[in-house]
Design a protein that fits this description.
Helices cover 26% and strands 39% of the residues. It contains 5 helices and 9 strands; from the N terminus they run βαββββαββααββα.
Length: 175
Protein backbone atom coordinates (compact mmCIF):
# COMPACT_ATOMS: atom_id res chain seq x y z
CA UNK A 1 0.00 0.00 0.00
CA UNK A 2 1.42 3.38 -1.06
CA UNK A 3 2.12 5.93 1.70
CA UNK A 4 2.20 9.70 1.27
CA UNK A 5 4.13 12.25 3.30
CA UNK A 6 2.03 15.30 4.23
CA UNK A 7 3.24 18.59 5.69
CA UNK A 8 0.67 19.97 8.16
CA UNK A 9 0.83 23.60 9.28
CA UNK A 10 -2.49 24.16 11.09
CA UNK A 11 -4.98 22.06 13.05
CA UNK A 12 -3.54 18.80 11.67
CA UNK A 13 -0.47 19.49 13.85
CA UNK A 14 -2.74 18.77 16.84
CA UNK A 15 -2.45 14.99 17.04
CA UNK A 16 -6.00 14.47 18.36
CA UNK A 17 -7.38 16.37 15.37
CA UNK A 18 -5.14 14.49 12.92
CA UNK A 19 -6.08 11.08 14.36
CA UNK A 20 -9.83 11.84 14.09
CA UNK A 21 -9.42 12.06 10.33
CA UNK A 22 -6.54 9.67 9.78
CA UNK A 23 -6.27 7.20 12.69
CA UNK A 24 -3.40 5.34 11.02
CA UNK A 25 -1.30 8.46 10.33
CA UNK A 26 2.24 8.37 11.68
CA UNK A 27 3.95 11.60 12.70
CA UNK A 28 7.50 11.54 11.32
CA UNK A 29 9.04 14.81 12.53
CA UNK A 30 8.65 18.55 12.84
CA UNK A 31 9.66 20.27 9.59
CA UNK A 32 10.13 23.65 7.90
CA UNK A 33 8.71 24.89 4.61
CA UNK A 34 10.63 27.73 2.96
CA UNK A 35 9.15 30.43 0.75
CA UNK A 36 5.69 30.60 2.34
CA UNK A 37 3.82 32.48 5.06
CA UNK A 38 0.95 31.04 7.12
CA UNK A 39 -2.24 33.13 7.11
CA UNK A 40 -5.75 33.01 8.54
CA UNK A 41 -7.62 33.80 5.34
CA UNK A 42 -9.48 30.71 4.11
CA UNK A 43 -13.21 30.45 4.92
CA UNK A 44 -13.93 27.12 6.57
CA UNK A 45 -16.60 25.18 4.68
CA UNK A 46 -17.93 23.65 7.93
CA UNK A 47 -16.77 25.74 10.94
CA UNK A 48 -19.25 28.60 11.33
CA UNK A 49 -19.04 31.46 13.80
CA UNK A 50 -21.75 31.40 16.46
CA UNK A 51 -21.76 35.22 16.32
CA UNK A 52 -23.17 35.71 12.83
CA UNK A 53 -23.20 32.30 11.13
CA UNK A 54 -20.41 33.20 8.70
CA UNK A 55 -17.41 30.93 8.20
CA UNK A 56 -14.50 31.04 10.60
CA UNK A 57 -11.16 31.70 9.00
CA UNK A 58 -8.75 28.76 8.93
CA UNK A 59 -5.09 28.59 8.05
CA UNK A 60 -3.68 28.62 4.56
CA UNK A 61 -0.25 29.26 3.09
CA UNK A 62 0.71 31.99 0.63
CA UNK A 63 3.92 32.20 -1.38
CA UNK A 64 6.55 34.54 -0.08
CA UNK A 65 10.28 35.04 -0.52
CA UNK A 66 12.67 32.21 0.31
CA UNK A 67 13.78 33.94 3.54
CA UNK A 68 10.39 33.14 5.09
CA UNK A 69 9.89 29.73 6.63
CA UNK A 70 7.04 28.16 8.50
CA UNK A 71 7.17 25.19 10.82
CA UNK A 72 4.79 22.29 10.70
CA UNK A 73 4.81 18.55 11.07
CA UNK A 74 5.52 15.87 8.56
CA UNK A 75 3.25 12.85 8.80
CA UNK A 76 2.72 9.78 6.69
CA UNK A 77 -0.56 8.16 5.78
CA UNK A 78 -1.76 5.50 3.40
CA UNK A 79 -3.34 6.54 0.14
CA UNK A 80 -6.44 4.55 1.11
CA UNK A 81 -7.16 7.00 3.97
CA UNK A 82 -7.23 9.97 1.63
CA UNK A 83 -11.00 10.02 1.10
CA UNK A 84 -11.55 11.18 4.68
CA UNK A 85 -8.66 13.64 4.50
CA UNK A 86 -9.95 15.25 1.29
CA UNK A 87 -13.43 15.52 2.82
CA UNK A 88 -11.95 17.35 5.80
CA UNK A 89 -9.70 19.60 3.69
CA UNK A 90 -12.48 20.76 1.32
CA UNK A 91 -11.43 23.70 -0.84
CA UNK A 92 -7.72 22.96 -0.52
CA UNK A 93 -5.60 21.49 -3.28
CA UNK A 94 -2.85 18.97 -2.70
CA UNK A 95 0.47 20.43 -3.87
CA UNK A 96 3.92 18.87 -3.95
CA UNK A 97 6.61 20.60 -1.88
CA UNK A 98 10.02 20.02 -0.35
CA UNK A 99 10.44 20.42 3.41
CA UNK A 100 13.44 20.50 5.68
CA UNK A 101 13.66 18.55 8.93
CA UNK A 102 13.24 21.01 11.83
CA UNK A 103 16.20 19.59 13.80
CA UNK A 104 18.41 18.27 10.96
CA UNK A 105 18.69 21.06 8.33
CA UNK A 106 20.51 18.81 5.85
CA UNK A 107 17.62 16.34 5.79
CA UNK A 108 14.94 17.15 3.22
CA UNK A 109 11.76 15.37 2.21
CA UNK A 110 9.51 15.46 -0.81
CA UNK A 111 5.99 15.77 0.51
CA UNK A 112 2.56 17.21 -0.15
CA UNK A 113 0.59 19.90 1.60
CA UNK A 114 -2.89 21.33 1.39
CA UNK A 115 -3.12 24.84 -0.05
CA UNK A 116 -6.21 26.82 -1.01
CA UNK A 117 -5.63 28.56 -4.33
CA UNK A 118 -9.09 29.57 -5.55
CA UNK A 119 -11.17 31.28 -2.87
CA UNK A 120 -12.34 34.64 -1.60
CA UNK A 121 -10.23 35.64 1.40
CA UNK A 122 -12.08 35.70 4.70
CA UNK A 123 -11.29 37.63 7.89
CA UNK A 124 -10.49 36.07 11.25
CA UNK A 125 -13.63 36.07 13.46
CA UNK A 126 -12.46 37.92 16.60
CA UNK A 127 -14.70 37.08 19.57
CA UNK A 128 -15.99 33.80 18.12
CA UNK A 129 -15.65 30.72 20.35
CA UNK A 130 -15.52 28.47 17.26
CA UNK A 131 -12.68 30.58 15.85
CA UNK A 132 -10.82 30.47 19.18
CA UNK A 133 -11.30 26.69 19.38
CA UNK A 134 -9.61 26.26 15.98
CA UNK A 135 -6.75 28.57 17.02
CA UNK A 136 -6.34 26.62 20.28
CA UNK A 137 -5.96 23.32 18.38
CA UNK A 138 -3.22 24.89 16.26
CA UNK A 139 -1.48 26.34 19.32
CA UNK A 140 -1.64 23.05 21.22
CA UNK A 141 -0.19 21.25 18.22
CA UNK A 142 2.66 23.78 17.98
CA UNK A 143 3.43 23.67 21.73
CA UNK A 144 4.02 19.91 21.58
CA UNK A 145 7.16 20.38 19.49
CA UNK A 146 9.03 22.69 21.88
CA UNK A 147 9.61 26.34 22.61
CA UNK A 148 11.52 27.15 19.39
CA UNK A 149 8.80 25.53 17.25
CA UNK A 150 6.02 27.35 19.16
CA UNK A 151 7.83 30.69 18.85
CA UNK A 152 8.18 30.14 15.09
CA UNK A 153 4.45 29.40 14.89
CA UNK A 154 3.56 32.66 16.69
CA UNK A 155 6.00 34.72 14.63
CA UNK A 156 5.03 33.27 11.24
CA UNK A 157 1.26 33.02 11.53
CA UNK A 158 -0.62 36.05 10.26
CA UNK A 159 -4.03 37.56 10.85
CA UNK A 160 -4.18 40.40 8.37
CA UNK A 161 -0.79 42.13 8.31
CA UNK A 162 0.15 41.22 11.92
CA UNK A 163 1.56 38.02 13.39
CA UNK A 164 0.03 36.18 16.33
CA UNK A 165 3.03 37.29 18.41
CA UNK A 166 2.37 40.97 17.56
CA UNK A 167 -1.38 40.69 18.20
CA UNK A 168 -0.77 38.98 21.54
CA UNK A 169 1.71 41.67 22.56
CA UNK A 170 -0.91 44.32 21.69
CA UNK A 171 -3.49 42.32 23.71
CA UNK A 172 -5.70 41.90 20.64
CA UNK A 173 -5.72 38.10 20.72
CA UNK A 174 -5.77 35.44 23.43
CA UNK A 175 -3.20 32.67 23.21
Amino acid sequence: MKKLKIFAYGSLMFEESLKKTAPCATILSPAKLHGFVRVFNFPSPYRMSEIDGTPCSVLNIDKSDLNHEICGILFEMSESSFTEMFAREQGYELVQIEVQDFHEPNTRYRAYTFRALHYEAHDYQHGSQKQQEYLNWCLEGAKKYGEQFYKNFLETTHIGNKTLAQLHEQKKIEL
